[in-house]
Amino acid sequence: MAYDAAILDLLREACADITTGERKMFGSHALMLDGHMLVAAWGDGWLARVGPGATEDALALGTEPFAPMGGKGMRGIVYADIDALEDEARREALLRMALDFVSALPPK
Which end of the chain is more exposed for a tag (fewer CB within 10 A), N or C? Predict the structure, then answer.
């Protein structure tokens, strides 16, 4: 899926001190932490890898389960619209959930 380059730039800015690289994933562009996807630009929004344990909390912030093929969602990954990126409190909460989950994974 195509992504909005402006959203990718906002993610890069928000995660400048966190990420350790970038990679193309899901036909889009992901910011990585130790070889694992942390966040990604996706369509007209973005994805956060919050993990299965934080998915309900992320959904309560107005995100949606990430289901790229319209079927069952991918566990632990949520889709957020541009508003969630521009709203500092929501953005920081989602980034914290993603960072907590991904930083606990062993480096690849």
Answer: C
d(C-alpha 30, C-alpha 27), whole Å: 10
In this prediction, residue 70 has a pLDDT band, given cuts at 50, 70 and 90, of confident
Distance between CA atoms of 78 and 90, rounded to whole angstroms? 13
DSSP string, the chain: --B-HHHHHHHHHHTTTT--EEEEETTEEEEEETTEEEEEEEBTEEEEE--GGGHHHHHHTT-EE--TTSSSPPTTEEEEEHHHHHSHHHHHHHHHHHHHHHHTSPP-
Q: What torsion do the CA atoms of 63, 64, 65, 70 make, to the nearest 10 degrees?
A: -150
Whether the pTM exceeds 0.85: the reply is yes
At 23, phi and psi to the nearest 5? -155, 150
